[in-house]
Specification:
Blueprint lengths: L3 H10 L4 H7 L1 E2 L3 E2 L1 H9 L3 H8 L9 H10 L7 H14 L11 H22 L1
Antiparallel strand pairs: 1-2
């Protein structure tokens, strides 16, 4: 039986889906972290990191794995400031000439495809 707080946590985490956390992870200020760096930092196998990076929802992901993944990507799910910085970066980068400059063109295309899929899923859930 799911409790109300667990359901609220899942809803809150789905505002920051795995693909978003994965593609916005940076090493330093300019370079995308990539799956190998995230795997090394989190202790999660590289293949699992890549699979998480393709997911548009946290459903089915164990909380320990999700937490380690987010921490390795530089996002603390329990820290309001960390989540605010992520949202602020997303908002600020859209005003730039080339948004998400830390991603190569190929990676940016993959990110945009996942983002559109996530938006469609959220629209269906609200309807």
């Amino acid at each position: 039986m799911k409790t109300k707080s667990a359901k609220n946590l899942l809803i809150a985490l789905d505002d920051y889906p795995p693909f978003l956390v994965y593609w916005l992870a940076r090493r330093g200020r300019r370079k995308w972290a990539g799956p190998h760096h995230i795997a090394r930092q989190s202790g999660i196998p590289g293949r699992t990191v890549t699979r998480l990076g393709a997911m548009v929802s946290w459903r089915g992901v164990k909380i320990g794995v999700a937490s380690a993944f987010m921490e390795a990507c530089g996002v603390n799910p329990m820290d309001c400031v960390s989540l605010w910085r992520l949202k602020n970066y997303m908002r600020e980068t859209l005003t730039q000439r080339r948004p998400y400059a830390h991603l190569t063109d190929w990676n940016l295309q993959k990110f945009v495809r996942r983002f559109r899929k996530w938006e469609q899923q959220r629209a269906r859930a609200k309807a």
